[in-house]
Amino acid sequence: PTLAQKELEGPLPSLVASAHGTVLEIGPGSGNQLSRYDRSKITKIYGTEPTLGLHPALRENIKKNGLSDIYTIVPYSVEDVQGLKEYGVDQEAFDCVLSVQVFCSIPNPRATASALWRLLKPGGEMIVYEHVRSTDGISRRVQDLYQIVWPYVLQGCCLDRDTAKTFREAGAWSRIELQEPTKEDAWQAVPHIAGKLIKTS
After folding, report:
1. Phi and psi for 41 in degrees, rounded to 5?
2. What is the signed CA dihedral for 76, 81, 83, 86, rounded to 10 degrees?
């Protein structure tokens, strides 16, 4: 199956639909996940998207999905504490943080994950769908070969990050519910982790 088919058939749609309360969406891009939100569960969504060129398409998709009154685009990265504060984004402000296929290209994933942990309320949920380094030896070698050119073709995307470990070490979690790649998925060039990490109350 293609990556798009895998998204539809996998856990991603239900993960996005589980977001509730005040939500922080990291790197929404042009808004691929907007149709998957369950508006009845949402109070407010803040989307941190520092790539200004994506904002027109993102605004259009926000409008298309009927979220204009609850979705605010924040033109800063999550590490820019002062920039976030301009939009009312502060420590322990969020019930949920959504991270979908963005940690592959974030320049400093460990610092970003720690920043996200601080932005979550106690008991808040880090909702994750990210591709990671394969656990299969042959696939890792394939990833290493792809990695030579992959970041230049796909805007800095890295195939070889241990993102599950990055999230686990970001802060104190009361519960970790991460689905890691199965043996059947391990051979793929872009296996994923999916699930939630619950911040300690």
Report:
1. -100, -10
2. 130
